[in-house]
Design goal:
single chain, 3 domains, 12% strand, 4-stranded antiparallel β-sheet, 11 strands
Length: 475
């Protein structure tokens, strides 16, 4: 299924469903925005014990750290208890607390939203205090813990170094008292190995001492977290969320409406448009009738010309109009087509006894159907696929020549069945009059369109055939 055809089937056929979904959801969004209470937002500014960021990414990382602390349930409960109000800590943490970096700096903006402006200010200050206290506790506990661990390792190394020094002194004394060269050599080798281990432990202790000095120095140079600006009571309420809710309602309405229309089309497919209907039926389009009365009259006249040509090509003089089930009354359209077709045929030269040769256009009737008549399908521009399949099956059963397809947006009414005929002077054709008294009287369109022939005077030769332009053959 092509995208254009699918769009036409969904939007042109089900636009009422889509419009209804959009209107309903827009109304619901507007009501939700009106009944939602007004809120106020208060903000405090603070810095953490983190070096200044060098770019936006580092500033965002610092803001994430502050947000993680500020939205912790323990900190939120502590702030609520400090202010002395009744609020849901879970809802407050998820929806009403926001922490963001100011540009690429290390300054954080902590905002709290509440329906009471005073409560919003007090909660913002309390949460800022909680964030700073948490960072101070973490910042002070980490260096102390590190120093404790380093000191424990230094003490262990000092004990091992003292033991090795004692061993080396003992080996030195034994070497001095050795009674043989072999014993002295063995003791010297043991002393050398012990000295190597001692040197390694001394080097390790030196590294740990350097780390200890660095921790002490870094703890002194690290910035401390602090509040640099307390929250103030908001003067104005937050902007209304009605525009955002309306946009969301519009989007959801379109999605719901288009989805519903697509589902309906998937379950009960339709065919939309003259070209699509003609392709589905395997016929040629003869015309499309619009809604406007004047344009519809012109379209019927154009369709009548094409029906006339199609009938000539198929060798049929009569036309039956057939339509899908429950498509509308075809009587006025049949009368108008018959009127226009007769008028068109009167513009052709005809023989005596053949004046009434215009096709008889009638709605199709299974009982009185003429086997020699051609068929013109008249259909609305939108047809259910099931109805179109039934019509296609009926056309195959009839085995009549199908002259083409006429679609309509609105069928003509009974007051449009006949229009004002053209003037006789505009019909530049010959009409042969029958001289025999048995000839049938001309039909109403012939009387309207046939040129008036005056009897010849005594001075003029009597003509047998008279025409519009006054030409004829003399006897």
């Amino acid at each position: 299924m092509e995208i254009n055809e699918a769009a036409r089937r969904i939007f042109q056929l089900h636009w009422r469903l889509i419009l209804w979904c959009v209107v309903v959801l827009l109304g619901a969004s507007a009501i939700a925005g009106v009944i939602r209470p007004r809120t106020y937002t208060s903000s405090a500014r603070l810095v953490l014990d983190i070096p200044d960021p060098q770019n936006v990414a580092e500033a965002t990382a610092i803001a994430d750290t502050g947000r993680a602390i500020a939205t912790g349930l323990d900190q939120v409960r502590a702030a609520i208890d400090q202010v002395g109000v009744s609020r849901d800590p879970v809802k407050l943490a998820k929806k009403d607390i926001n922490v963001q970096a100011i540009g690429s700096s290390g300054v954080l903006k902590l905002s709290v939203t509440d329906k009471n402006r005073t409560v919003a200010r007090e909660l913002a200050d309390a949460l800022a205090t909680q964030v700073v206290a948490t960072r101070l506790r973490v910042a002070r506990s980490q260096p102390a813990q590190t120093l404790t661990q380093l000191q424990e390792r230094l003490d262990a190394l000092d004990a091992n170094i003292a033991v090795l020094n004692t061993q080396i002194k003992g080996l030195t004394a034994r070497i001095a008292r050795a009674g043989s060269v072999a014993t002295a050599a063995a003791l010297s080798q043991s002393k050398s190995q012990t000295q190597s281990v001692l040197d390694l432990l001394v080097a390790q202790r030196s590294d740990l001492a350097t780390q200890q000095t660095g921790v002490v120095t870094g703890a002194g140079s690290t910035p401390e977290p602090s509040i640099i600006q307390v929250a103030a009571s908001p003067v104005k309420a937050d902007p209304s969320e009605i525009p955002q809710l309306l946009g969301l309602g519009l989007l959801m309405g379109l999605v719901l409406g288009v989805g519903g229309a697509a589902t309906v089309e998937a379950l009960r497919p339709s065919v939309v448009g003259t070209e699509s209907l003609a392709v589905a039926l395997g016929v040629l389009p003869l015309g499309s009738l619009p809604k406007g009365k004047r344009n519809r009259q012109r379209a019927i006249a154009v369709a009548a010309e094409r029906v006339l040509l199609a009938g000539d090509g198929a060798g049929t003089k009569k036309v039956e109009l057939i339509t899908p089930a429950n498509a509308g009354e075809l009587g006025p359209l049949a009368s108008k087509l018959d009127w226009d077709l007769r008028a068109l045929r009167l513009r052709r030269p005809v023989r005596a006894g053949q004046r009434d040769v215009g096709p008889n256009v009638l709605p199709f009737n299974a009982v009185s159907s003429d086997p020699s008549a051609g068929v013109v399908v008249v259909s609305p521009v939108v047809v259910r696929k099931a109805d179109l399949d039934d019509l296609s099956a009926l056309l195959k059963i009839l085995k009549k020549p199908v002259l083409g397809l006429i679609t309509y947006a609105r069928l003509p009414k009974r007051d449009e069945a006949r229009t004002r005929p053209a003037e006789a002077e505009q019909l530049k054709t010959f009409v042969f009059m029958d001289e025999t008294p048995q000839a049938s009287a001309p039909s109403e369109p012939e009387r309207a369109f046939a040129p008036r022939v005056h009897p010849p005077t005594s001075d003029e030769p009597k003509t047998r055939n008279a025409g519009v332009s006054g030409q004829g053959s003399t006897e």
